[in-house]
Amino acid sequence: MATSLHVLMALGGLTVGLLGFTGWMGDARALDVPWLVPLSGLSLRMDPLGGFFLLLVGATTVPSSIYAIGYARGARRGLGAYALFVLAMAVVPLAANVPTFLLAWELMALASYALVLTDDRDPAAVRAAWIYAVMTHAGFACLLSGMLLMTAWTGSLTFADWRAAATTLSEPARNLVFVLLALGFAGKAGVIPLHVWLPAAHPAAPSHVSALMSGVMIKLGVMGILRVGLEWLGVGPPWWGVVLMLAGTLSALGGVLYAAVEVDLKRLLAFSSIDNIGIILIAVGAGFVFHSTGLETLAIFALAAAFYHILNHAAFKALLFLGAGAVVHGAGTRDLEAMGGLIKRMPWTSAAFLVGALAIAALPPLNGFVSEWLTFQALLQNGRIPRPELNLVFMLALAGLALTGGLAVACFVRAFGIAFLALPRTEAAAGAQEAGPTMRAAMALLVVACATLALTPTLLLPPLGATAARLLGDAAPSSREDLLTIAVSGDFATLSMPVIAAALGLGLVLPFVLLRVGHAPSRIRYYETWNCGRLLQTSRMEYTATAFASPFRRVFDFLYRPERVVEIEAHGESRFFVRRMVYRNPTRSLVEDWLYAPLLGAVRAGTARVRAIQSGSANLYLIYVLAALLVLLVLA
Amino acid sequence: MFRQLALTLRVGIATEPPRSFPTLPALPLEDVGPRLSAQIQRIFGRSLHIRQVDAGSCNGCELEIGGLAGPHYDVERFGIRFVASPRHADCLLVTGPVTLNMAEALRRTWEATPDPKIVIAAGDCSRDGGIFQGSYAVLGGVAAVVPVDAVIPGCPPSPAALIAGLLDALGRRS
Q1: What's the 3-state SS for A434-473?
Q2: What would the pLDDT profile of A208-263 be if each residue is shown by its tens digit?
Q3: Residues 81-120 of B with CB under 8 A from A
Q4: Does residue B27 surpass a pLDDT of 80?
Q5: What is the pLDDT of residue A227?
Q6: With an 8 Å Cβ cutoff, is B29 touching chain A?
Q7: What is the reported pLDDT for B70?
Q8: In this complex, do A534 and B105 lie within 8 Å of one another by their Cβ atoms?
Q9: Which of B3, B52, B108 has the most A C-beta neighbours within 10 Å, making it the best mutation to test the interface with A?
Q10: Element (H, E) at A92
């Protein structure tokens, strides 16, 4: 039953993906069912942007569902929620009016809430689901108020009418709607400081669901921001883009910094998602700024870079989450400190995870490199904007992005090295089992996707540019150079992924060929790995995940504010005979301590005040009713 | 991080401007050096990388070996470098009488050094155990564990003796 549903979901995902592809390529479709949804009826419209995100939903559902066949092993729990989750995500990009959108959005949130709560006996999962519910509904409240305001001011529930009507709105009104809607969508996208639910919820959900949440769901938040700022409200002032770029820089840096010190593999990936959403938002923000300063070609370029990174991140983050799921399944732990040596027990998973790690660290010749390179190029074009204060923001984003790139490499060297290399640190890791055939097939599919996305930027950029152009309401620039090379604004910069891949591959193979051809003396002597001449080598001598991250903790101590906890239990007779020693080096979250803790404290204090009027006396409540009635009569 | 940055700003530039030095008189080393360089060129192509192994030495030899890399002798200009791993080394420079505890480590270090390699025993202890000869805790000489190409006598051998010994060891190598 569970298996057949997952097969069905994979086929459904394929269909949805193909449908999305046709829509992305410009095939407009519409579906209206007036009786289904209150107020205005169900209304779906396919446009290139919606098609693009539909393709993303479908294409990520296929490997996730194939993976779930082996991963869930016929468990029935969460099946309905999974199907509903995918369905809701497929409706969101197509929704053409407010009720349809909000309904699908809320269904998506509720279904994923149920999925986070799959293991409801785990207190951490219960807490994660609670945080997620609160955050997602705070976002929903922002969306609801923003959309209702917009409906009231434009007099229409249909998104298509908003663009024309938005030009008649006053500037403060548009700004208010933008801020409300952007806040709602940014919460879903996991932008810092609205990200607190993400590192809690992603590890709690099953891995194939984490792949979908991280690969697709948070991107729908980005889609919302794109729709608000470029489609529904027309051309906005430059500060919208500036805010997005600054928020993106903050998310990129904050996300990768927390990922670099995290010891829970799935939480690490969740923080890395925040980092990647930041990178996408930087490109989106650059597109906004270019658009509002009238540089349409550059706006299209920046948005195409953002779209490319959205595709890439879906591919490699889904791959990494599926790999992490295989590790959790095989070694029975999410804790990096309890792994090690998995490459020998799980060669397939290790190879897949390595590809994902290389891709997310933006190393050539994989796909992450292409989109980060494009983002850099888009940002470097800021000299065309004749406003120094905007150029400064671009410089800040460039510096942030560069630092993020370096830290991401360190973060994933650590994740892969500690988890998969060296000696196993626990019995469970030593006896880890390789993932089953369906799980391996799903990971292989995503590896192929990463490689394809890496090698075909020249094929992908024209349709991505066309999507961006449609979003901005322009005609697409139809410039396609040769199939091997991308050229940015003439001779500014060029990139040819096939050539890079060929050169790197050749560099790898050529030495062996030359040695063979040149009949080099092949006196090879094999001896054990150099271990400083030690007789005994145990896993306790290995670099731990915490130790590896220690330089980051020290350099960025103002952010982590690490605490050093040493508990020593000495022998009764003498304190020099230690019986047990515990060393911990936890970090604290700046956002939680300085933003959420005071906020929650204030809310609690406020509610305690308000509770004074709720005395429990029925007479008092009757007086309230009477007073309310009188006030209403006076007002009316 | 911010503490470091603040400190850097507060301290400013703390280095002194360079002074000019009188020309040094020619030392015997200046003759030996180029010959050593030529021998290294002949056998290893460009440079000689040395891994120093302390097989139970009293550290007297280490002090003299340390002097080689200092500004007075400065053997790096003749193509000699001390490296941190036998995997990078052409030559093992072993000191000490080889204690029982270091014997296996020394053997493993020798195994881990890629061929072709030279083993030089420096100091009297490394030749035959020196003053530790006959102790129950030492094997009495490097040759008891790994094949030795050359021995540099002295307790401890001076840096000049070490350089002469190196030259001798390289010269005997065809």
Answers
A1: CCCHHHHHHHHHHHHHHHHHHHCHHHHHHHHHHHHHHHHC
A2: 999 999 999 999 999 999 999 998 988 889 999 999 999 999 999 999 999 999 98
A3: 85-87, 104-106, 108-109, 111-112, 114-115
A4: no
A5: 93
A6: no
A7: 87
A8: yes
A9: B108
A10: none
**How far apart are the C-alpha atoms of A245 and A501, rounded to whole Å?**
31
Contact criterion met (CB < 8 Å) for A527 and B109: no
Query: Prior bond to A63 cis, omega within 30?
Result: no
The Cα B169–Cα B128 span in angstroms is: 18
Tokens of A431: 């006896």
Identity at A258, one-letter amino acid code: Y
Going by C-beta distance under 8 Å and a sequence separation of 6 or more, which residues neighbour residue A393?
Answer: A242, A245, A246, A289
B169: three-class secondary structure by DSSP: helix
pLDDT in tens, A122-166: 888 899 999 999 999 999 999 999 999 999 999 888 998 888 888
Which candidate, B90, B88, B86, B97, places its Cα nearest to that of B145?
B97
Among B165, B118, B119, B116, CA closest to B142 = B119
Cβ-Cβ contacts under 8 Å, B85 against chain A: 530
* Closest to B50 (Cα-Cα) out of B85, B82, B28, B76: B82
| Closest CA–CA distance from residue A529 to any residue of chain B (Å) | 8
Amino acid at B101: N
Q: How far apart are CA A402 and CA A282, in angstroms?
A: 12
Domain ranges of chain B: 27-169
Residue appearing with tokens 């503490």: B3
Nearest CA to A288 out of A277, A275, A298, A279 is that of A298
Contact B111 A527 (CB under 8 A): yes
* A591 contact partners, CB below 8 Å, separation of at least 6: A192, A193, A195, A196, A254
Whether A530 sits inside 8 A of B112 (CB atoms) is yes
Q: Around Cβ A617, how many Cβ atoms within 10 Å?
A: 9
- The one-letter amino acid at A49: L
* Domain chopping of chain A, boundaries: 1-234, 590-635
Fold of the CATH domain B27-169: Rossmann fold (3.40.50)
Q: Per residue in A431-489, pLDDT tens?
A: 888 888 999 999 999 999 999 999 988 888 888 888 888 888 765 555 555 555 677 76
Amino acid identity at A636: A
In this complex, which of A523, A535, A558 lies closest to B104 when CB atoms are compared? Answer: A535
Provide mean pLDDT across the span A285-290: 94
Of A239, A234, A227, A223, residue with least CA distance to A188? A223
Considering chain B, what is the average pLDDT of its residues? 87
Read off the DSSP letter of residue A118.
Answer: T
